[in-house]
Q: What sequence folds into this?
């Protein structure tokens, strides 16, 4: 963001309204209480009403029980428990759906993203920016392979993607309400939230920070899941794989045509030799491989078209325990069990 764009920012010094913090959680029983302690300590210093929307994404440990205990101790807490594990991208969307603040902050609960960075994000909002995203200067507790593959992913997306994806940036960010409302209009099945956040645009600012190691527990993201997320990102925001398949087909066709001409001339000049079994097998294997790869790429995109056509809801909510921090003074927490499903006109599925 350059100084030339300052004129499109919101007025500086705008009054900070209610803040919603969205925190998806999956099997984070061992860290959730410490996360909330640190988060609450930070939020109370901001001098405004706030809430935290914890989304239990079908945890199989005691995460939900711990969240319900916390909600009984702190009226700032809203617990949204999904009917099963839908994945972090959908859980984040569910939290945004249930947030009520004029400013929304998305953060993970594993304490790799320190809540103490939030005041820096708020300060960027006060400067007039609609989006303030935390950009990693360092990544403690991660292997060389993880850091290298992450850097490679951002470089590839920067070259082939249709949207400018900020490097070394996760979901940890602050967004104004108009940005959140814009993101929530997009209900596609295969969700890559970092791409959606970037796609809607609006004035933004990067806030550098040092990412910590996990406070406790183990990561839920193995290399296979990270590879799947990378495929989601590329296929959601780029047609580059289809273009590669097209180019590969054209190149193969040109090579085949050239080789056919060579064989024809060779036969006319030198006559027919003994059949060339090795060269025949090589040609068949090459052509077969190109065809299978191309069909696989087409299948990835076609599968996404199929899921869009189903128009299933993004998620179902098993229960909502809503605090009173953004409600009238003295209001009691609300508990909703098995609410009606989301409007299918604005929902999608990830499965």
A:
């Amino acid at each position: 963001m350059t100084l030339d764009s300052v004129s499109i920012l919101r007025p500086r010094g705008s009054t900070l309204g209610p803040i919603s913090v969205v925190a998806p959680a999956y099997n984070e029983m061992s860290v959730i209480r410490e996360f909330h302690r640190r988060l609450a300590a930070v939020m109370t210093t901001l001098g405004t009403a706030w809430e935290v929307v914890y989304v239990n994404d079908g945890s199989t440990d005691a995460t939900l029980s711990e969240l319900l205990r916390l909600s009984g101790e702190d009226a700032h807490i809203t617990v949204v428990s999904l009917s099963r594990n839908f994945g972090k991208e959908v859980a984040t969307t569910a939290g945004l759906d249930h947030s009520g603040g004029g400013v929304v902050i998305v953060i993970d609960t594993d304490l790799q993203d320190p809540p103490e960075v939030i005041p820096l994000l708020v300060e960027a909002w006060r400067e007039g920016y609609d989006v303030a995203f935390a950009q990693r200067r360092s990544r403690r507790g991660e292997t060389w392979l993880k850091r290298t593959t992450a850097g490679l992913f951002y470089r590839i997306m920067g070259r082939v993607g249709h949207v400018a994806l900020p490097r070394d940036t996760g979901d940890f960010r602050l967004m104004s309400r108009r940005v959140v409302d814009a993101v929530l209009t997009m209900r596609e099945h295969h969700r890559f939230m970092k791409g959606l956040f970037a796609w809607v645009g609006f004035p933004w600012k990067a806030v550098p920070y040092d990412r910590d190691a996990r406070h406790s527990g183990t990561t839920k993201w193995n290399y296979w899941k990270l590879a799947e997320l990378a495929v989601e990102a590329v296929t959601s925001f780029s047609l580059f794989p289809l273009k590669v398949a097209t180019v590969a087909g054209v190149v193969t066709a040109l090579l085949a045509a050239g080789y056919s001409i060579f064989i024809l001339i060779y036969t006319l000049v030198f006559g027919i030799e003994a059949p060339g079994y090795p060269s025949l097998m090589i040609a068949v294997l090459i052509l077969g491989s190109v065809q299978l790869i191309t069909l696989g790429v087409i299948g990835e995109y076609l599968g996404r078209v199929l899921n869009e056509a189903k128009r299933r809801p993004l998620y179902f909510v098993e229960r909502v325990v809503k605090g009173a921090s953004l409600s009238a003074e003295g209001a009691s927490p609300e508990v909703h069990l098995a609410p009606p499903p989301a409007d299918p006109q604005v929902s999608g599925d990830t499965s």
